[in-house]
Amino acid sequence: MKTFWIVLITLIVTAGIIGGGGWWYMQAKAEKEKKSLQTQIDDLTKQVNGLKAGESSATSTSSSTVSSAKDSQTNLDSAEAVVKNFLDAKKPDRWKTPSRI
């Protein structure tokens, strides 16, 4: 009977160590991926804001410039949608989606 308890306690301790190590590994991996994705989001946000600032500084009213600005805005909107869809597909459900990139 003494051997049974020793084996049982050993199995419980081993399972705890393995489970804790697995949890720690996955948590560290998720944090690393989250930081990487947040860096990408920040970089893309800076690019979008830079493009929007460049568009708003243009003061020309010619029809080609207005048309080009509309095309650029359409491209920006579709790029934001693509980035948002990509990030939504890559992240776990428990992560919250920012309201606007």
Question: Which characteristics define this entry?
Answer:
mainly alpha; 83% helix; 101 residues
What can you tell me about this protein's structure?
This protein has 101 residues and is mostly helical. The chain is built from two helices and no strands.
User: Average pLDDT across residues?
Assistant: 80
* Largest β-sheet summary: none
- Beta-strand residue fraction: under 5%
The end-to-end distance, rounded to whole angstroms, is 63 Å
According to DSSP, the number of beta strands is 0
> What is the overall number of helices?
2
Which helices and strands, and how do they pair?
Elements: H1 2-57, H2 63-90
Helix pairs in contact: 1-2
Quick overview of this protein structure:
With 101 residues, the chain is an all-alpha fold. The protein is 83% helix and 0% strand. α1 packs antiparallel against α2.
